[in-house]
Amino acid sequence: MPIAVERTQLPTGLALNRLICGLWQVADIEKDGRVLDPETAADALGAYAATGFETFDMADHYGSAELIMGRLLARHTGPGPRPLAFTKWCPAPGPMTAAVVRAGVQARLDRLGVSRVDLLQFHWWSFEHPAWLDALHEMEKLRREGLIGAIGVTNFDAAHLALALADGIPLATNQVSFSLLDRRAAGPLSKLCARTGVRLLAYGTLCGGFLSERWLGRPEPAAVPDWSRSKYKRFIDAAGGWAAFQGILGAAAEIARKHGVSVANVATRWVLDHPAVAAAIIGARITEREHRADNGRVFAFSLDASDRALLGEAFAATTPIPGDCGDEYRRPPFLTASGDLSHHLATIPHVYQAEPVPGRPDRSRVSSGSMWEPLAGYSRAIRVGNRICVSGTTATHGADRCVAPGDAGAQTTYILDKIAAAIAALGGRMEDVVRTRIYLRDAASWEPVSRAHGRVFGAVLPANTLIQAGNLIGGYDVEIEAEAQL
Ligand SMILES: NC(=O)c1ccc[n+]([C@@H]2O[C@H](COP(=O)([O-])OP(=O)(O)OC[C@H]3O[C@@H](n4cnc5c(N)ncnc54)[C@H](OP(=O)(O)O)[C@@H]3O)[C@@H](O)[C@H]2O)c1
User: Fold this and answer.
1) Whole-model pTM?
2) Same structural domain, 317 and 355
């Protein structure tokens, strides 16, 4: 029987159920090489769709999930809305030319058997590699061509989401981890969503199933075989360990008993109550188990002030997951899992290549390929012994495009990624930076620039100078130089 569901709209106007069926679990089921029968698996998706869960979340690397969804879509020949296919493209880092992006998008269309993907979400492994902006601009061209209904991203922190928007990409969604245990998305990302209208699609809401009665009062598992739960076990460890987790689980169980619902319902309701959240994605091990009826009960009750206070007490006994959303894929502590392509991290090419300085064995340098560097006689960055000096850096993308024109804060985010890439190519890290100098065109932009600088250097605390420099050459809003001591 169809469940009475809450519905919402993405900024593009696309309407959907606030619970989405997630299919990463297909990759886990298939990890030993046994591929699900597409027709039987499509029957399982059809049963979800028939009860009102008509939206499915997939990715290029979720085993045969896109093919299974393709079978379901092929069956929909009659009138009425067809199930919605949200998928992801997670390319290996490298140049994102028009041809590369078109091939990535076309592969999604081919596997789904459609001429337009409803929502295509883009993941990128390292913002030091600037090609992510090229990929999104190419995706936008394909959206205008009609191949993509709406563009989303996944695992973007607030700063890079803001940068993409300021660079003119009309993003509808950002898919991030958001749960009673991982509350990062309630921070700067939610504020940005309120300001821009971008909506969050929350995953990890049940921590792979850990946030359920099944684990209440149970001893800590020694080994966790499935990919999803093994990932969230790492989140549990980072949030203060099993005892802290049991504190949250206990509070959720007490609230669940009071309302006559399940722990999963309480965990999901708490996430859905955040205005930035469009929907929660709940993973399903299709053909093995399903919790459809129970999950549908999330729409039948509300959390009150005393429930929130009880959860707040449990939160206070946990350690906040460090950083912002998506950091788990890009920096320590890497809270990722097998099966989510995180092995790419080991193969990300440096954007810049270090070159030896002839006759000076203690020196190496990087150039960005700009025609001006040899002409004017400077390097993007130079290493002398254990010291690295990075030239004044602007938000120049490719040969001469200014990224995020008019937005000094977003330009700072881009510049600091560029500085990080130059320092990395010379064997250093941002933690080694001991001095930065910031030149502003307009003194009024000091705050967003300072905040963007603080996001990167808040724990490093290099010496800093911030000055207004009048008309920066090239019409840029901000220019930054840096020095690192290894
Ligand atoms: N963008 C990204 O980087 C990213 C990363 C991870 C996931 N995702 C997306 O998010 C989806 C969610 O996956 P997830 O790994 O985060 O897992 P999750 O949704 O937190 O947990 C799913 C598991 O919870 C259990 N469960 C579901 N409903 C339940 C209920 N009512 N009561 C008790 N247990 C219940 C089931 O476990 P059993 O099957 O064992 O019963 C299910 O497999 C994925 O499929 C994927 O679409 C995206």
Assistant:
1) 0.96
2) no
pLDDT tens digits for range 72-113: 999 988 777 899 999 999 998 889 999 999 999 999 999 999
Which of 328, 344, 360 finishes a domain? 344
**Does residue 153 fall inside a structural domain?**
yes
Ligand 1 binding pocket includes 414 (Cβ within 6 Å): no
- Distance, CA of 160 to CA of 414 (rounded, Å): 8
pLDDT in tens, 111-162: 999 999 999 999 999 999 999 999 999 999 999 999 999 999 999 999 999 9
Structure tokens at 482: 């840096």
Tell whether omega for the bond before 219 is within 30 degrees of 0, i.e. cis. Answer: no
Identify the pLDDT of residue 342.
66
Distance 59 CA to ligand 1 centre (A): 14
Domains held by the chain: number: 2
CA of 21 to the centre of ligand 1 (A): 9
* Ligand 1 in reach of 281 Cβ (< 6 A): yes
User: What pLDDT does 7 receive?
Assistant: 95
The reply to whether ligand 1 has any atom less than 6 angstroms from the CB of 228 is: yes
What spacing in Å lies between the alpha carbon of 57 and ligand 1's midpoint? 11
The mean of the pLDDT values for the chain is 94
Q: Which candidate, 219, 214, 290, 213, places its Cα nearest to that of 255?
A: 213
Residue by residue, DSSP assigns 400-447 as TEESSTT-HHHHHHHHHHHHHHHHHHTT--GGGEEEEEEEESSGGGHH
Nearest CA to ligand 1 atom 32: 264
